[in-house]
Amino acid sequence: MSLITNLLVSFLIWSTYLSYAKCDVPCAARDVGIEGRSIVCVCNATYCDTISREIPERGKYVVYTSTFAGDRFKKSYGDIETNVNAREDDNDDDVDEDENGNYEGGEDGEIEQPVSILNRGAIRLYANRRFQVIEGFGGSVTDAASINWRKLSDGAQINFINTYFGKDGIEYNLIRVPIGGSDFSEYPYTYNEGPWQDGNLSNYSIVSEDIFFKLPMIKRALRAATSEIKITASTWSPPVWMKTNERITGYGQLKPEFYQAYADYHLLFLEEYSKAEVPIWAITTTNEPINGVAGAPFVRFNSLGWFPSQLARWVYNNLGPTIRQSRFNATKILAIDDQRYMLPVYIYGMEQEEPKAFDYIDGFAIHYYGNFAPASILTAIQNNYPDKILLSTEACEGPMPWDNEKVEIGSWQRANNYVTSILQDLNNYVVGWIDWNLCLSPTGGPNWADNFVDAPILVYEDSDEFIKQPMYYGMGHFSKFIPRGSRRIRSAQRSLLRVDNLAVITPQGTVVVVLQNKRERAIDLRIQIDWRRLISITLEPQSIKTIEIGV
Ligand SMILES: *[C@@H]1O[C@H](CO)[C@@H](O)[C@H](O)[C@H]1NC(C)=O
Ligand SMILES: *[C@@H]1O[C@H](CO)[C@@H](O)[C@H](O)[C@H]1NC(C)=O
Ligand SMILES: *[C@@H]1O[C@H](CO)[C@@H](O)[C@H](O)[C@H]1NC(C)=O
Ligand SMILES: *[C@@H]1O[C@H](CO)[C@@H](O)[C@H](O)[C@H]1NC(C)=O
């Protein structure tokens, strides 16, 4: 292209961008034709709905609403009301209350209107009571996700990346990537599979899945992103010759003679991805270590078992020193990477064996599939380890044996489950939330172990389109409006009716509140910003709302 055409094209793209900047492209809704399901939004090579975040001026607010009935990020605007008759009864600077203002969806406060009808809620915000700093939100670049993505045409691939990572999308800023294969691969594999007993890892190399699928997808995401993308990497299984059972799955742990080799296995991955210009922010200490121990009878995919004592010794003697003495010394080490209810078990066992292992650990990684255990476990852990972060690293719907439909297209219930979990986690000190596969096929694969599940985006190769399920919008209600560096603030329930919520203050100085109404009825809600100023809104039946307030 000549310089002139180049300039002309840039000008055209730029002017198009300017003229549409404030004008969101609406969801191309498709009725999935199943009773009880919501709509999905269809994207292709030339069309995909967009969303812009509008930062309100002081005194104003912007609302984004998604509903079971079919709204997706529907925008509305309002002015903060001032109650001139208010008495200064509870002051912002009054900080002698419980420091841990955080259970599921905000804490109890005194009830102002005990008679209040059960359709009326009240929440009081305390912008000066600040808790954890938010890292962000994201999804995982598995083999399955990247293989599906590459089945789309160039235009649809671009729309896909932008809808997750771009300025007009939901602006994800976290990614998780498997080190080698996971069950969401077309076949089980690891790096350095041969020769056997190769403790020096002389034959280590990344594979074609990295080169042709995962790395290209990640690099496109890095380029589209509006802020730094922080990548967390996890191993599912090492080469089987390192394992006591010499199999990819089942009951098996690391052979002691390969403890150092397995640490080096992680370091070499950091080298390889660094060479490919994909920096890794954090590694976890192996995906779901319980699967190769007590979970073995139920799990049929890539795993490595760790007893807590073994994990402590390996981190202290091998992984920790190896990473800290390398040029990747800033890489965070996130321990455990397993279900919520497993965390106390591992932490206790590791402490008993080698408390100094915790000097190498920057935080704990948590999975989604055991959330019958209360989220307050996380606050208890944070209180014991105030300098460590809690990061949710994996979540998906449909993985349980009793989930007879792996993919429930258009499910609003599944979006609700995500939102409930994010609200609980973040109200209990979690700093970020990473979804599992960014996309899957319409049957929830590929997965070599037949462990099919749901994903926020499904890819339809034949029609060159992808559909965005309610779960995508559930994620977006957080990721789009809670930028990195936001801090959770205290919110207190002031009504008999509890309304699940999360409140943060953003780096721009605005307050963002996420609200969930799981009921079939509308809720009238009063959000008291301080003793004089308030917002009155209605939460539609079965809705998720994000409100950004110019305080
Ligand atoms: C892409 O989607 C838009 C909006 O739904 C539609 O008008 C257009 O026909 C689609 N393009 C193709 C090639 O299907
Ligand atoms: C080294 O790895 C390659 C695959 O990356 C494999 O084909 C080859 O057999 C391995 N070499 C040995 C000596 O096992
Ligand atoms: C690793 O390499 C060193 C030096 O090349 C060699 O002496 C040693 O035997 C190798 N170890 C293994 C387990 O292959
Ligand atoms: C980390 O490594 C860099 C070189 O890559 C070095 O400059 C720095 O001092 C190291 N930091 C620590 C804490 O060892």
UniProtKB/TrEMBL annotation:
GO biological processes: glucosylceramide catabolic process
Domain Glycosyl hydrolase family 30 TIM-barrel: 134-482
Domain Glycosyl hydrolase family 30 beta sandwich positions: 485-547
E.C. numbers: 3.2.1.45
Enzyme class: hydrolase
Segments of skewed composition (Acidic residues): 89-109
Family (UniProt): Belongs to the glycosyl hydrolase 30 family.
PANTHER family with a match to the protein in the record: GLUCOSYLCERAMIDASE (PTHR11069), LYSOSOMAL ACID GLUCOSYLCERAMIDASE (PTHR11069:SF23)
Record's protein name: Glucosylceramidase
